[in-house]
Amino acid sequence: MSAAAGVGQQWVLVEMVQAFYEAPAYHLILEGILILWIIRLIFSKTYKLQERSDLTPKEKEELIEEWQPEPLVPPVPKDHPALNYNVVSGPPTHKITVNGKECINFASFNFLGLLDNEKVKSAAQASLKKYGVGTCGPRGFYGTFDVHLELEDRLAKFMRTEEAIIYSYGFATIASAIPAYSKRGDIVFVDEAACFAIQKGLQASRSNIKLFKHNDMADLERLLKEQEIEDQKNPRKARVTRRFIVVEGLYMNTGDVCPLPELIKLKYKYKVRIFLEESLSFGVLGEHGRGITEHFGINIDDIDLISANMENSLASIGGFCCGRSFIIDHQRLSGQGYCFSASLPPLLAAAAIEALNIMEDNPDIFQTLRAKCEHMHKALQGISGLKVVGESFSPALHLQLEDSSGSRENDVKLLKRVVDYCMNSGIALTQARYLEKEEKCLPSPSIRVVITVEQTEQELDKAASLIKEAAQSVLN
Amino acid sequence: MYTHVFSTKKNGVSNGTLYKKTFIEHFEQAPMYVAVLTFVGFGVGTIFGYLRDFMRAWGLEKRNIAEEREQQKDFVPLYQDFENFYTRNLYMRIRDNWNRPICSVPGPQFDLMERVTDDYNWTFRFTGRTIKNVINMGSYNYLGFAETEPTALKTVTKELQKYGTGICSTRQEMGTLDKHVELEKLVAKFLGVDDAMVFGMGFATNSMNIPALVGKGCLILSDELNHTSLVLGARLSGATIRIFKHNNMQSLEKLLRDAIIYGQPRSRRAWRKIIILVEGIYSMEGSIVRLPEIVSLKKKYKAYLYLDEAHSIGAVGATGRGVVEYFGMSPDDVDVLMGTFTKSFGAAGGYIAGKKDLVDFLRTHSHSAVYATSMCPPVAEQIIRAMKCLMGLDGTTQGLQRVRQLGKNTRYFRRRLHEMGFIIYGNDDSPVVPLLLYMPGKIGAFARRMLEKNIGVVVVGFPATPITESRARFCVSAAHTREMLDTVLNALDELGDFLQLKYSRYSKSSHPELYEETRFELED
């Protein structure tokens, strides 16, 4: 009996299997989907219904009536230091007319004096005659002119890299380049004294930012080691997390250079990519003006991306990034300031090409500029009350108060009096401006002193002695 | 897909006297088979993409992309392989339709540099020849100020000689020139507001000033199809962003009500302020913002309005003052008027205008004023002369003529395209005309064949548009003559039949005598 029952059970099993094979496909698929759906429902989390509002329509109307927003903008006091600009009449060249007074220009970043160079102007005029002013379109939609391609070619050749890409605005260059590579979840090690454009680029990228003390390689190495330990805890995540170091060649906020050879060593040791911002050092450092890589004698391929703006040494508008094609080509589709913005007006591109020609034909201006910087740096030493911040070969120096008065506002006022004294006697200076609430590490108030090739030794001496006089009369 | 909307609002109906003229916008939906075929097209492209990747990975096919350095091969890869799948396999095939270099002024006709590819678009080579007098339907040259006429550029040439090209400083340091002051006064006068401030780049105007105006604890209500610069500015500000459906006032009102009633999420504190970000003309859709309704909403709920008139300043309105004038409203209704000079004025840069408090605040707190170089003087002069021409201050009526010509050209072009049976999006008065192509194969074919006929067009696909709605976008200019437009329309007619682009179900023939024969044939 039991044997028959056993056979009966087996028989049922075989029947079941047979039915399984004979059932039509759609039936099986449907059953399969239903089973998966049930499993999903069993394992999915329950969700709470949104809090139902118990407000009556009358209460809602009252809430809407009562709500008062802040004014769109807070009122600005009339004596805000940044409200009244210095108005320059005429071009901001070596001899500049500020607020009606003629002065010698120690405030514009016209390092190589190319702002009123006749050859540059005539190249721009020729381009104006041929192309008009604007490009009326982004690069992707008939906004690419042959001058843009030529400028990119020339910049790549000058910097000895494979490829270069130009942007129509200096600020947007590094601010678009960083988010094109570094995304949410990636890690960026950046110097504390990085300029605002870098900070905005980092903010747009939504990556993890790790600040290291200015030019302190030991601090950077400590952060890198910490990251290595983190990686070992989670190797799968570490394999897809990109890392970058962002530094400037010549820092705008402090006037010194980054220790690039040590950075290269750290790059290969910890497998981090380097992005170098060379706005101030392009056209200034190095034997031929190629920037900090030439200054230290480093192979340019070791730097992943070099970004610079053409608004300082090249006396034009815009910016460029250069590096290997593998890296630069990516920005042509994902650099926001490149894809979604109109391209650089051709007359500015032609002016930049001509400026590059001049730089290549006269490589001795860099030496001249460096000599003048050294001279000025020495002449500014020993002013009572003010200290010089910056390397001796940096053309953009800061003069900070030796002893701060305690409040930033008072420091700014004192420095303003020094600047006004100098302006009234024929030397145009300016204070370095910052957005106090937005900077990550706000530098102390300072006066910016810019040295250009066009300034003679007498003018440098005159400026130095005038600043001394001003400091004495205001600060003592 | 947009639902079919064929809305006409006249006086006396629901919105009462909000709209002073008829407001007609079209967003016709294509027949179902078009959507199916589009997906099939992308599917085939994807399958071949996988096949190609497989062949490249196994060395059966040459790798054409640049590679990482040998010394850095053990670094974390810079790009995810999958991120670039679309670029490598779909975009590369039709890459020759973008980034076409030109070598003349971008006026109504221009010269293209001829380039060929020997390896299926991986690299390009210039043959040295130029394709001359291609009709330009792609550049944003609405009023035709992109010109090289010596008399027109007389003042610009003079200023270039006087000032040079660089500034080398920021607005707050030593970069404010008398030219900037002159330009700002003129812009304020042109728009009819208290004061204005100009910036060196249009994109940067949005991305650097929105963070100055709003911060944490504020709410931004942004239209679905806003430009990247607005989205970037909103993100950088740190405020909460909520998106409302494109030009949909019910969606916006619901968001406003919910925001005020429920406050900030979780903490329920009231929002510090609410700002609505919209554009005058949306460049991918060709639609015009429903300004009267938005202004009445903003007044009712005490929100602020930021209007980005990049494409509409100079292009709409009886005297070219933008959408504010187009709807017959006062510039005081809009809190922040922003625009760019790249499109209608043939220059570069952007501006923000409004009440004096607003502009003073921006002079002290805008990121651009403190850290970015100011506008270059010859470009400023170009804007000044274009604006003076528009305002009639140069003694001629040329400005007004240009605006009227643009309006005429726009209406003619759109009417003819409707009659031919293409699906066109957008408002009848907008000079941006998107023509829907839908299928990926047609994008490449359309642009290439139009170039063979000596017409330069712009085509856009994913990711700038939704994946099923690839389009060709025409920008009508005041400098286009009737003959040029007719040439383009005839070419479109031919190509539309060849590529079967005439999807509209509402076409009326504009030349009944030409088409009658075929109609009768079919009816047989």
Automatic annotation (TrEMBL), chain A:
Record-linked InterPro entries: Aminotransferase_I/II_large, AON_synthase_class-II, PyrdxlP-dep_Trfase, PyrdxlP-dep_Trfase_major, PyrdxlP-dep_Trfase_small
Residue ranges annotated for the Aminotransferase class I/classII large domain, each copy included: 102-465
Entries under Gene3D superfamilies matching the protein: Aspartate Aminotransferase, domain 1, Type I PLP-dependent aspartate aminotransferase-like (Major domain)
One cellular component (GO) term of this entry: endoplasmic reticulum
Origin: domain of life: Eukaryota
Pathway the protein contributes to: Lipid metabolism; sphingolipid metabolism; Sphingolipid metabolism
Catalytic activity as recorded in UniProt: L-serine + hexadecanoyl-CoA + H(+) = 3-oxosphinganine + CO2 + CoA; octadecanoyl-CoA + L-serine + H(+) = 3-oxoeicosasphinganine + CO2 + CoA; dodecanoyl-CoA + L-serine + H(+) = 3-oxotetradecasphinganine + CO2 + CoA; tetradecanoyl-CoA + L-serine + H(+) = 3-oxohexadecasphinganine + CO2 + CoA
Function: Component of the serine palmitoyltransferase multisubunit enzyme (SPT) that catalyzes the initial and rate-limiting step in sphingolipid biosynthesis by condensing L-serine and activated acyl-CoA (most commonly palmitoyl-CoA) to form long-chain bases. The SPT complex is also composed of SPTLC2 or SPTLC3 and SPTSSA or SPTSSB. Within this complex, the heterodimer with SPTLC2 or SPTLC3 forms the catalytic core. The composition of the serine palmitoyltransferase (SPT) complex determines the substrate preference.
Protein name (record): Serine palmitoyltransferase 1
The organism of origin for this protein: Cairina moschata (Muscovy duck)
From TrEMBL, chain B:
TM ranges: 30-51
Keyword Signal attached: no
Pathway per the UniProt entry: Sphingolipid metabolism; Lipid metabolism; sphingolipid metabolism
Cofactor: pyridoxal 5'-phosphate
Gene Ontology annotations of biological process type: ceramide biosynthetic process; sphingosine biosynthetic process
Alphabetic keyword roster: Acyltransferase, Endoplasmic reticulum, Lipid metabolism, Membrane, Pyridoxal phosphate, Sphingolipid metabolism, Transferase, Transmembrane, Transmembrane helix
Enzyme Commission number(s): 2.3.1.50
InterPro entries listed in its UniProt record: Aminotrans_II_pyridoxalP_BS, Aminotransferase_I/II_large, AON_synthase_class-II, PyrdxlP-dep_Trfase, PyrdxlP-dep_Trfase_major, PyrdxlP-dep_Trfase_small
Locations listed in the record: Endoplasmic reticulum membrane
GO molecular function, one term: pyridoxal phosphate binding
Residue ranges of every copy of the Aminotransferase class I/classII large domain listed in the record: 132-492
A single cellular component GO annotation: endoplasmic reticulum membrane
Enzyme class, spelled out: transferase
Protein's membrane topology: Single-pass membrane protein
One Pfam family of this chain: Aminotran_1_2
Keyword Endoplasmic reticulum (UniProt): yes
UniProt record similarity statement: Belongs to the class-II pyridoxal-phosphate-dependent aminotransferase family.
Name the record gives this protein: serine C-palmitoyltransferase
